[in-house]
Design a protein that fits this description.
about 270 residues, alpha/beta, TIM Barrel, 8-stranded parallel β-barrel, 11 helices, 8 strands, globular, binds 3-methyl-2-oxobutanoic acid
Length: about 270
């Protein structure tokens, strides 16, 4: 089955979780295609894992375009191309006007969907993007572009009033037309409530095995991260073949599809 938005959303109904991996170049794009990964996220996490910055804030729209082109051009040559999602970087969607202009740049670079961080305040922008034919992935919970507001990369949604707000945020993004919503670093019980209260598909990272999909950064899957977060699993250690990198991605894919990953030790 082709990795279209429609087909991937259908998996929520049939309760078949799908996998997404954040990657930033043509070589990883090809390895992920070979492993059968449904979706590749060109994440602004590249600011940290490629550029070595302390946060995602320095990443520019030009850099996102460059990496999106690299991933998308290799993906196009795949037998079963993945769905490409590209991040709108910090402050590139501060107004609806700038969101439309910058999202258009990412779509021209080869993205099939754009991702932006934030809740209810973004609903109008999401609706405008969707109306103009640009599919949207929301992102709530630990939104790394707000790291200064949070005082660090911390689990979100532990308090009842935060939980209420996050449920409301997800519902507003859903109503505005978002196809996917990333739920990052929130308690599993909250992720479960959000997933069952929206029509769109939720994509978890540090949100337990209750979301409609799972996303991890490619280097985390390969055990290359310094000081990995609780939700990270090194899949390379289980790989034993001529191509351990593709095998690690394949293992991640199967573990997500079979709901083996994330396990209880990866939850909050
Ligand atoms: O930028 C990124 O890679 C992300 C994922 C970690 C969800 O937003």
């Amino acid at each position: 089955m082709k990795n279209t938005i429609q087909n991937l959303r259908q998996k929520k109904i049939t309760q078949q979780p799908f996998s997404m991996v954040a990657a930033y170049d043509a070589t990883f794009s090809m390895a992920l295609n070979q492993a059968g990964i449904a979706s590749i996220l060109v994440g602004d996490s590249l600011g940290m894992v490629v550029q070595g910055q302390a946060s995602t804030l320095p990443v520019t729209i030009e850099q996102m375009v460059y990496h999106t082109e690299a991933v998308a051009s290799a993906n196009l040559r795949a037998e079963e191309p993945a769905l490409i999602i590209a991040d709108l970087p910090f402050m590139s969607y501060a107004t609806t006007e700038s969101a439309l202009t910058n999202a258009a740049m990412l779509m021209r670079a080869g993205a099939n969907m754009v991702k932006l961080e934030g809740g209810s305040w973004l609903a109008e922008t999401v609706a405008q993007l969707v109306e103009r034919g640009i599919p949207v992935c929301g992102h709530i919970g630990l939104t790394p572009q707000s790291v200064n507001k949070f005082g660090g990369f911390k689990v979100q949604g532990r308090l009842p009033e935060q939980q209420k707000q996050l449920i409301e945020d997800a519902q507003q993004l859903d109503r505005a037309g978002a196809d996917f919503i990333v739920l990052e670093c929130i308690p599993k019980t909250l992720a479960s409530t959000i997933t069952s209260s929206v029509d769109c598909s939720t994509v978890g990272i540090g949100a337990g095995n209750v979301t409609d999909a799972q996303v991890l950064v490619c280097y985390d899957i390969l055990g290359l991260s310094d000081n990995p977060a609780r939700f990270v699993k090194n899949f390379i250690s289980a790989a034993d073949s001529d191509n351990p990198i593709v095998d690690a991605f394949r293992d991640f894919n199967q573990s997500v599809e079979q709901k083996i990953y994330p396990a209880a030790e990866h939850e909050y």
